[in-house]
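User: ok so my PI wants both of these folded by tonight, can you help

Assistant: No problem, let's get them done. Here's the first:
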Amino acid sequence: MGEQSESLTPAKGKAGAGSLSLSWSKTVVVIVLLLIWVFAPWVLPAYYLTMANHIGMVALVALGLVLMTGVAGLTSFGQAAFVGLGAYVSAVLSTKFGLSPWFGLLAVIFMTLALAFALGAITLRLSGHYLPLGTIAWGLSLYFIFGNMEFLGGHTGLSSIPPIEIFGISFKSASSIYYLIWIVLFVAMLLTDNLLHSREGRAIRALKGGVVVAESMGVNTARSKMIVFLLAAVYAGISGWIYAHYQRFVNPSPFSLHIGIEYLFMAVLGGAAQVWGALLGAGVVTLLKEWLQDLLPRLMGASGNFESIVFGLFLVLLLQHSPKGLWPHAERLYRRIIAASRSASPESRSSGLDTRAAGVITRFPAGLGHSNWPVSTLPKRAHQLSADAGYLLRAQGVEKRFGGLIANQAISLELRQAEILALIGPNGAGKSTLFDLLTGVQTLDAGEIFFCGQAIHGQTARHIAKLGLCRSFQHVRLLPEMSVLENIALGAHLRGTQGPLRAALHLERLEERELMREAAEQARRVGLADVLHLPAGSLALGQQRTLEIARALAADPLALLLDEPAAGLRFGEKQQLADLLRALRADGIGVLLVEHDMAFVMGLADRVVVMEHGVVIAQGEPAKIQQDPRVIEAYLGVDLE
């Protein structure tokens, strides 16, 4: 709570008492859960203790799928194969070579990373339905390898696997290994939560918004995909290592494709984008499976895998009525209980604290209140042009064809520093295509593009964004479930350097604080200071378009390319946008904007470029453009003067 925004955190009086009551309620819940966890081996029957251990192991695998599938949007059916890899590697080293299980753990991590990197380098190039099909392919391959190699015991498996030992204490029984399983799980959940609330975590979450948007923000999407793929594989491998030395026997059956689908079901059921959803899903699926296996044969009067039918129907209903899983429902229930307990006291009723708003705030640097606004210390880009450049952005003879369609032909334009250049034309004129060419989203067929005197044609969108050329999109592309502050911070991705390991260990806190301060500074700059901690998807359209500009500004750009920023805005919102763009021009930023509102453009732009059918038909100052007969005929239709 110490890192929350001052503007939303009650500081004194009755509001402060309400906040203390809320914190105390959470503390009591945590203490109760901790006591239940500590004393569970002493009070649970052997059957349920075994179930608790199994839940802990499978939750570790489901946690990797939450990160990979729920957060990054990469569907995998093959995680059971990585569990098998971890189990077999350690089992072979222990039984065939007499090595310690702890040496086996190191070998499991190394082998899992090596194989996952090789598989990921191939599989992660796939998209759409080809990606899950690819995971099915290598998942089946590994499963059949486990069952057909005599060295691995074939389908009979390997037995007499030694138990894990620490300081002479052997973890043979369910009660003794219980703490090891759950400590490993909680550590993994903590590391995952740290990662997701960092610069690297925002990059991973940006994958769901689309590769084009993420790359335009400077995110190396291939690297981010590989990070989550490797981490999910390591979690599964460690789960397999524990399984092998707990059961002291392995065979291929627990590592089949069917079990891989079950792991994915756990992640989806619990809450595919929630760290704690992995534990909830693992618990619900495991317990339901056991109960249904006992109950359904009695009801049906025959034995069979009836629970699979029930699970299938349950999954269909869940996806229809609760696509985000069960965790959001559990979270809402918890908040209602806390709110009900607080409403019983006069202090909390008069505090006026909105518990819904408080629930959105997570890990934001201190001092984001309006009265004491922080100033980011991130290094700023030198907003100076080299003497031989004379312009920010220059395109010469740019052409782009899609088969027989010529989208852009011999396009030439220049954007100067501290200038607003408008690009106008009827629908289908090729304006958005030109934006994609200028920012590296698409490759041009002919011509040259220079930015600050440096050739950028043929460069990736990520490289161009790093140089200081940033953009917005014709249709708003935000991460709706992330806060306004986090969406803006994503734009500052390239200004950070801390990697995933330091993020998972929470060693990047100083840099993260500066990134968030930069995001808050840009929010204030564009007028979004009052909505910092709200989900971006809850904003009005005008605010969302402004948010896209703030996200681009967080990259400390030299030039902004804005694709229809005034589309769908009301008159007052357009006036605010115009004031913002004039302020950016005064700060030395060059702005190239595509817009259809001629009154907005002519009252704002320094120069105007007019396109029709993929070619430039006129360039010049607004007054000149309004009088050009070709422009009037092709687009305006009337003389605006």
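One down. Here's the second:
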Amino acid sequence: MKTDIEIAQEAKLLPIKEIAASMGIEEDDLELYGKYKAKLSDDYVKKIENNPNGKLILVTAINPTPAGEGKTTTSVGLGQAFGKLGKNAVIALREPSLGPCFGVKGGAAGGGYAQVVPMEDLNLHFTGDFHAITSANNLLAALLDNHIQQGNELGIDPRQIVWKRCLDMNDRVLRNIVVGLGNKMDGMVREDHFVITVASEIMAILCLSDDMEDLKRRLGKIIVAYSFDGKPVTAADLKAVGAMAALLKDALKPNLIQTLEHTPAIVHGGPFANIAHGCNSVRATKIALKAADYVITEAGFGADLGAEKFFDIKCRKAGLTPDAVVLVATIRALKYNGGVPKAELSNENLEALKKGIVNLEKHIENLQKYGVPVVVTLNSFVSDTKAETDFVENFCKERGCEFALSEVWEKGGEGGVALAKKVLETLETKESHFAPIYADELSLKEKIETVAKEIYGASDVTYSPAAEKELKRITDLGMGNFPVCMAKTQYSLSDDPSKLGRPENFTLNVREVYVSAGAEFVVAINGSIMTMPGLPKQPAANNIDVDDNGVITGLF
């Protein structure tokens, strides 16, 4: 059996100019990054701004398990299937982070015969967007420390610096560090911290900004520290906005690539869903909606994280109205939720399936609370039996969901035709009555507790003293109307990764709270989740190599 990277390397790619032409994009509207990648120019964005919007389809999933779910694979395969049916479709995805590529999760290009390509470029440096974000983040950090060194005119309290440096790599030893060691000219000695680039507020800002003007407005509002008298100090106060925007000028432009079957894919931005808001850029999604009749996008990890933030943050802030949701599951993952060890998932086990399907049930209920029609798809494995598949199909139909099998990993677009037809039927016969799950006017605590109880299934929420204090400060600063961005484990509906299935009667523990004033949301960190992941005992990096001909192996 061929690996994902072997399939991608054997693919015959079309020049990106031809992919663009299929969308009606002229060569002058592209900024080429070699033969197979391009950025979409600001001029093109202006040309299409009066076009009618296409239909917006979100792909999400149950909680991830070691058995695999295939959310990105399904997104790509569904886009290819629309192409097989002669439909004008575009895929809008996130860019992968380098950290997971070398850690445990791997890349984010899809898999099998449902991939976006060039796969190696996308999973490694792509067009440099994440490096630009990293540089802008760390420029702000450098300007902050330099301001203190040069006299501290703004009266910044070094004990109340909240801006962290970032790096797009899983590097646990950088979570908590001491900077400024050395002599007097080496800066003030203080504790500092790193987050992974995909958790940087600048990533969130880039992905929520409409244009350069909006980007600069948001950058200026970033709170970097508080003064000795308790007032917030912003990036605008440090006169950092212009230089940061200059670094982000090209990163703000969405990237165009293709699938294995030459479906256009706009790939831009990549905030993590377990520690950030988990959606590709608003700009990319809006461009796709103007350029195509159907737009397939995804949100990270399970629907309790990615879909919730897509609805409650991205759609709320961008004025987007999703028309349908595709919820991805696998028989194997449902049996894992039912207590079957990974080594035994290939065996038919209807009892475990019945026990584990409660995880899917909760996600269906959650999505229906937003008023958007739901289509459940099973990402097919050869070990699935008819009895198991029939059980899941009946289960979904009893709950008012459409159902289709997906075989896109093995068959590409052809394997997604049944799913595509079911999505089209849903779009034609069911109306979306989308609404976020909470109102802006609720307090921050009420918003946190709404998500915890309505989406996760918690019975109660507790707050650390530090979180309580910060919630009050954020509210007193006039930012209590912001939505909340919940950071928690992706592996469970609760904040405990060991609680599989559908946990009930648990308490969600809010450990830390901070405001992303430029992104205009409040982050609540729950349980033991980290904003700088670590590498596993056997990192994926151990298996990645490149030969004398420049051929990369080991990426997945």
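The mean pLDDT is 95. The two ends are 14 Å apart (CA to CA). Good luck tonight!
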